[in-house]
Write the structure tokens for this entry.
Amino acid sequence: LYPKHSKGVEALKEFANSLAPNNKTKLLDFIDAYEKSSITNINEEAINFLNGLLHDANIRILSSNFSEDMFVLKHEEDSFEKDQRYYKNKIEEMYSNVIKYTPVFQKSIKKKAKQELENAFREIDRCKNFDELLEVEEKYEEIFDELEDLIDYDL
């Protein structure tokens, strides 16, 4: 979808009509503000906002090209389970980065990273909705960033 061009805005508006009233209003307000703005690209915050709205209808923004304001939307069955898998993979990637760059002698960092990975997976399994998944992701992003800060790259 190209929100400022072609049929993108119309498609989003059409989609908005299928949402619950409060989400419909939010999405229409977002589209209206975007159309009237001089924004040349859409930032991560907007993507997250849209994903939150679209999630109710099992639609995900699969990719975006900020320079062209392009979004690929896809309707997914069993979306929540896929979201859980997606966030597990994302956190596992954070874990892998810590493990990959941690020197052998800094075993405590590797051990802590492994514990946090297991904790994250348990928390993701307990999540009941998309907002909870986002909270878990933010929490563990911070934790793995802190672990990366402890890595001694000089040795």
Notes: Residues 1-6, 62-77 have pLDDT under 50 and may be disordered. The longest strand covers residues 59-65. Residues 79-150 form one domain. The radius of gyration is 19 Å.
